[in-house]
Amino acid sequence: MEPMTTLANEFRPKGPQRIKRRRLQVAKALHDFITDEVLPGTAVPELQFWADFDAILHKLAPENRALLARRDQLQTQIDGWHRDHAFEPFGAEAYKTFLTEIGYLQPEPEDFTIATGTLDPEMSTLAGPQLVVPLSNARYALNAANARWGSLYDAAYGTDLLLEPSQHRSYKPIRGARVIAFVRDFLDKTLPLATGSYRDAVAFRVTAGELTVVLSGARSAGLRDPGQFAGFRGLPEAPTAILLVNHGLHIEIVLDRTHAVGASDPAGIADVMLEAATTSIMDLEDSVATVDVEEKVAAYRNWLGLMTGELSAQFKKSGQVVNRRLNEDRYYTAKDGSALSLRGTALMLVRNVGLMPLTDAILLDDGSPAPEGIVDAMITAAIGMQGLEALADNHANSHCGSLYIVKPKLHGP
């Protein structure tokens, strides 16, 4: 009978098939994804990519190991201090002195400035909500990207914003009336008219680049702040949408008298759309569990699809198959008559894993697994270049040629 160790080895799962690139042993699934799907959309030659990847990993992996060893040393010293002082009153100054002595706390550095280059307004001047979503789920990722615009009617009707969430699938007119009244009050507060209220609106017109709201009783009013009118869709005398702006965020009043809601509305308002999530973090860290190479590649592939605009997800909703894709940009006529377009999707960032995890998706020359945070940085940046090579494309993520990568857990100087 053969030794048990031999039998155990026969049933031990085999590691992924690997391809050698310079000193790296790369799992075939990852190698083929990068070579066949990622690099063709960039200006980076394949041989140069792998040579650079090899150099970066073999330079930074030892530094990463040394930093983590230093982290373990500090943690051991801190644990020991707490054991030694477990039964003593806590003294903040003594503790601070100890942390300074071991190098955990360091002197405040001198003031400095840092140049970040050209940033999209969503990252520099425009304040708005941000979503974090697992990149491993294509449907969720698309939902987060498309959350740039949302229906205020739907938000008020389908949640507990005003009252208990509706438990009924069919439309309830009384609930709907409360939602419409709430939205009119929102418009009055956020985009006030010079006189009157949106509750009395019966029509919208654009005349000489200015918005006129026709009110009941043969009255009309403009905006208290005419600068809040940004544009429209359709004909000036019969617009299908009115675009307004408040604190840099846009609000679209949708006009459609053939719509189920607009048909019963005196002004034909079918919906009010808000510009909401201006940015979204596509997460490879806390909200995902990508353990093996195939799972990691699937998440990378979703990031690639977001950058190229080709990602889609099919699912069933109310018995119907829905095919979800990235929203198109939104087009209007500006108040001066020129063409105006707004993003249809949130500006997307990608969050890498921290510096502690290791991945056997790539093995170094000594056979050790590569730091996953460095692997993430290299691959998500290469994928992000897809969006930079086609800035004129409707789905270009950055309109100024920037790439946004979140590197977590980097605390301290």
State the major sheet. Answer: 7 strands, antiparallel
How much strand?
25-35%
Helix content: 25-40%
Bulk shape: globular
Briefly note the CATH topology name of one domain.
TIM Barrel
Average pLDDT, all residues: 91
In the CATH hierarchy, what is the superfamily of one domain? Malate synthase, domain 3
Q: What's the level 1 CATH class of one domain?
A: Alpha Beta
Instruction: Name the poorly predicted regions.
Output: 1-13
Measured distance between first and last alpha carbons: 60 Å
| Quantity of strands, as a count | 20
Spatial ordering of strands, largest sheet: 4-11-10-9-8-15-16
Q: Structural class of the secondary structure composition?
A: alpha+beta
Radius of gyration of CA atoms, rounded to a whole number = 28 Å
CATH architecture of one domain: Alpha-Beta Barrel
